[in-house]
TrEMBL record:
Pfam families: DUF7703. This is DUF7703 domain-containing protein. PANTHER family: INTEGRAL MEMBRANE PROTEIN (AFU_ORTHOLOGUE AFUA_1G05950), INTEGRAL MEMBRANE PROTEIN (AFU_ORTHOLOGUE AFUA_1G05950)-RELATED. The keyword Transmembrane applies. Coiled coil: none annotated. It comes from the Eukaryota. Keywords: Membrane, Transmembrane, Transmembrane helix. Residues 8-250 form the DUF7703 domain. The chain crosses the membrane at residues 6-28, 48-73, 79-102, 114-137, 157-175, 195-214. InterPro entries: DUF7703. It comes from Clonostachys byssicola.
């Protein structure tokens, strides 16, 4: 067994094991709540936003379970464990970016920016999931030595890459939302401004959580980071629902006089 979680099982203190179990429980509870909210919130069970929320949440479960199986060797076949981790990690991380992308249309009207974000997400899949997946399988093979070093390096590259991607998308939200706040007429009701400010706060919080994941990895807490990341991604998905509810209430209050018509909101978000 290793003590860092990059290959096979881990040897941890009782305190660390309790922290890992705690993040695992938080992740599963949040996913259950997210799925219940999704099916009760969405009027139409279709669309990119709907499915990206669901698939990303399901990925959190697989990602968490996979690391639990690997770290504590509940399944002794490491290839099975890595496969479960990969099948969960990819939709969990890429899915979060797709969730952000799918509601970008609400505040960004420049199609070139939206297309650029989509290209960035697709590129990140090939740059930040394929190489570390190959190295991860190698690190858990019968000859792990040639792979563990590069995997440790690429793991950090992957974390920085995905964090930079989500920070970029959140930065676009902050920039565009700030522009919308500046052009709002002084006589306009407070509700639109409140929603805009809420969007700003949510995206700042997303950025801070991404930075916290990087901090745990750079602090040499890889075993904690993997389960903490699942918990963080579940919290980020939960933050979508206050945004959804405020947007929906805003449309109901402002009616057709506001740029977000109910049909426009429904076509993008399905609510």
């Amino acid at each position: 067994m290793a003590d860092d979680g990059y290959s096979g099982g881990i040897v941890v203190t009782i305190a660390n094991a309790m922290v890992i179990a705690g993040f695992f429980a938080i992740s599963l509870y949040n996913v259950l709540e997210i799925n219940i909210q999704v099916f009760f919130t969405f009027l139409k069970w279709k669309g990119l936003y709907f499915w990206s929320l669901l698939i990303s949440s399901w990925g959190i479960v697989l990602h968490s379970v996979g690391f639990l199986l690997q770290f504590f060797q509940l399944c002794t076949n490491d290839y099975v464990n890595i496969t479960i981790i990969t099948l969960g990690g990819v939709p969990m991380v890429i899915g979060q970016s797709v969730v952000l992308y799918s509601r970008l249309h609400l505040i960004v009207y420049d199609r070139r920016k939206i297309r650029w974000v989509l290209i960035m997400i697709i590129s990140s899949f090939f740059l930040f999931t394929v190489p570390p997946t190959i190295l991860n399988y190698g690190s858990n093979s019968s000859n792990p030595a040639p792979y563990i070093g590069p995997f440790k390096v690429y793991e950090k590259v992957m974390l920085f890459g995905f964090a930079a991607q989500e920070i970029t998308i959140s930065g676009i939200y902050l920039w565009e939302t700030r522009k919308m706040l500046r052009v709002m007429e002084p006589g306009m009701s407070e509700a639109p401004r409140r929603v805009m400010r809420h969007l700003i706060y949510v995206n700042i919080l997303v950025i801070l959580m991404d930075l916290s994941i990087i901090g745990t990895e750079l602090g040499g807490l890889h075993d904690i980071q993997t389960t903490y990341k699942s918990a963080v991604y579940s919290v980020k998905l939960k933050l979508e629902f206050p945004v959804l509810n405020q947007l929906r209430n805003l449309v109901k209050r402002e009616g057709r006089g506001y740029s977000w018509s109910s049909s426009h909101l429904s076509s993008i978000l399905g609510v």
